[in-house]
Design a protein that fits this description.
The protein is α+β, with helices and mostly antiparallel strands. It has helices at residues 2-31, 38-59, 65-81, 85-101, 105-116, 128-131, 141-158, 162-178, 183-202, 239-249, 264-268, 296-299, and strands at 210-216, 227-232, 254-256, 273-279. Helix 11 (264-268) links the parallel strand 3 and strand 4 (273-279). The longest helix has 30 residues, at 2-31.
């Protein structure tokens, strides 16, 4: 344990020192006749990457899975922007594993869907970076996408997001029926499909509450500082319970009782301020639902 602790300290010290070097490099590049443009781009790129990695490493040891999720999203978005699909996919699976640990099955499904969206319904071979550690024994992108869709649909089912499971099932059914002619697979899928429709109408599905949480002040790490996040509560979780969990995670934070944006003094403070309030999702009614007697279960 001591060795691991020293290893972490060394890593954090190394990243912090290297980050300072990047800032110094940036200042020198800005003053240089030939490196003012390309050198500045490189220094900002490395500095941004190191900041994300430092936040990610810190979150690994603070005991908060939510913080780890935020940092993981920042890292994978960085690599997505830089078109590094291999590392991007690697962090997608780290995020998926975190969601599964927290029983966020709907979020796990959406995370895997980001991998599936990189693939085509074709016989084009899978390059090694697309397979990743959870790879099935597949040859083509179509085979891998099919396996991913099956897993994603199972997660949507477990998360009671049956509407999204139906949407992906339709796409998979089209492929089974008209491209690969897998009628056995189609029959299994259609049975699940029917169950999803039945669940929408008959199964108990409590509506979760959604919370907007703002973290203000320089007492918070950079990936939270002066930012607002939207959280979906667990089943039957109310604002009082969510607030308690939030303040337990940040025992030194002061709770802001209003819902208006805080003044600049609070944002610039060295303390921690938390603002939490309930928000309501806005229903986007499909055109075919308008002026129709649509059952309440479907509208939910």
């Amino acid at each position: 344990k001591n060795a691991e602790f020293l290893k972490c300290l060394f890593f954090l010290f190394f990243l912090s020192s290297f980050q300072c070097t990047c800032h110094s490099l940036l200042e020198h590049c800005r003053k240089h006749k030939y490196l003012s443009s390309s050198g500045e781009v490189f220094a900002l790129l490395v500095s941004s990457l190191l900041e994300n990695l430092l936040d990610y490493r810190t979150s690994m040891h603070d005991g908060s899975k939510e913080n780890r999720m935020s940092c993981t999203v920042n890292v994978l978005n960085f690599y997505k922007e830089k078109k590094r699909e291999d590392i991007y996919i690697r962090y997608l699976y780290k995020l998926r594993d975190l969601h599964i640990e927290c029983e966020n099955y709907t979020e796990a499904a959406y995370t895997l869907l980001l991998h599936a969206e990189l693939l085509q319904w074709s016989d084009k071979p899978c390059t090694p970076h697309l397979l990743q550690r959870d790879s099935y024994y597949v040859y083509s992108q179509q085979e891998l996408k099919e396996k991913l869709y099956q897993e994603i649909i199972a997660f949507f089912d477990k998360g009671k997001m049956w509407e999204k499971a139906i949407q992906l099932s339709k796409e998979l059914a089209e492929m089974y029926e008209n491209k690969v002619f897998d009628y056995e697979g189609l029959s299994i899928l259609l049975k699940k499909w029917a169950t999803f429709y039945e669940n929408i109408m008959k199964a108990m599905r409590p509506q979760p509450e959604y919370f907007a949480v703002g973290y203000y002040g320089h007492g918070f790490p950079s990936f939270l500082r002066n930012k607002i996040f939207i959280y979906r509560g667990k089943e039957y979780e109310r604002r009082e319970d969510f607030n308690l969990k939030l303040l337990t995670q940040f025992p030194n934070a002061e709770k802001l009782s209003n819902t208006t944006p805080p003044p600049d003094e609070i944002k610039a403070s060295l303390k921690q301020y938390v603002q939490c309030f309930t928000v309501k999702p806005v229903m986007n009614l499909p055109p075919n639902f308008k002026d129709k007697p649509v059952p309440e279960q479907i509208l939910k």
